[in-house]
Design a protein that fits this description.
The protein is of the alpha/beta class. It has one domain: Aldolase class I (TIM Barrel, Alpha-Beta Barrel), CATH 3.20.20. 40% of the residues lie in helices and 19% in strands. The protein is built from 8 helices and 10 strands. Strands 9-8-7-6-5-4-3-10 form an 8-stranded parallel β-sheet. α1 packs parallel to α2, α2 packs parallel to α3 and α5 runs parallel beside α6.
Length: 251
């Protein structure tokens, strides 16, 4: 599997990276959270632009550069649509314009692209032309598909040119989490790209604590009580829990 060398972390390396989201609705709160991220043990910061009160290309593109400077971490920008559990409900053209503007912003190293959307190929190309990395993503906020479907989703992201392939699902039973972890392990063995996989909600805790054992290259944790998806644990708790698991693994 190939790894991605970011400014301060290796994505796909021996240790899963920890990503924290910025969820503030305005400039002041987003920048304050970014400053908090700089003092946290997080490796990567994700700005959830769809949670911003006025996510226009010009405004968000300008602020992204400031966010990167305040966070002092590699910055992932994400526009999560309503179809995949986010708040961005505008059309395909508006989504494309916003994602392209973020990709062109100085300081943005990673850009989330929902690869199943129309026009995704053009956005992948735009991110690469701007010198960034594409995190292909798929979210099922209601259920957990079968192993084959999840694996096909990740394969499709890789085929579309994503540099990182990501899937998040909502388990309804423990067996759903087991399927998600199996799909992650199979994708990690097959694909050249780093894979990120998680099961959301309380049932999905095992995927957040031990996803790295199944090939997940990163996990998401909340920052200062601000979560971007159900089931995210505080970043300090995740770091401590993973350290205990690592110690027991070596015992």
């Amino acid at each position: 599997m190939s790894t991605i060398e970011l400014a301060t972390v290796e994505l796909g390396g021996p240790r899963p990276a920890i990503i924290v989201p910025l969820t503030g609705p305005d400039d002041e709160q987003v920048l304050a959270q970014a400053t908090g991220a700089a003092a946290s043990p997080a490796d990567i910061v994700e700005w959830r632009v769809d949670l911003f009160d006025e996510p226009t290309p010009a405004r968000a593109g300008k602020l992204a550069t400031e966010v990167a400077a305040h966070a002092a971490r590699p910055l992932l920008t994400t526009v999560r649509t309503t179809a995949e559990g986010g708040r961005f409900g505008r059309g395909t053209g508006a989504y494309a314009d916003l994602v392209a503007a973020l990709a062109a912003s100085a300081g943005v190293e990673l850009v989330d692209v929902e690869c199943a959307r129309p026009g995704a190929a053009g956005l992948v190309a735009a991110v690469h032309e701007a010198g960034g990395y594409v995190v292909g993503s798929f979210h099922d906020v209601a259920a957990t598909p079968g192993v084959g479907e999840m694996l096909d989703r990740l394969r499709a992201q890789a085929a579309a040119g994503a540099d990182v392939c990501k899937i998040a699902v909502m388990p309804q039973a423990p067996a759903d989490v087991a399927r998600l972890l199996e799909a992650c392990a199979l994708a990690d063995a097959e694909l050249d790209q780093p894979v990120i996989a998680m099961a959301m909600g309380p049932l999905g805790l095992a995927s957040r604590l031990m996803g790295g054992d199944f090939g997940s290259a990163a996990g998401f944790a909340s920052l200062g009580g601000h979560a971007s998806a159900p089931g995210q644990v505080p970043v300090e708790d995740l770091v401590a829990a993973v350290a205990v698991i690592d110690r027991l693994r070596r015992a």
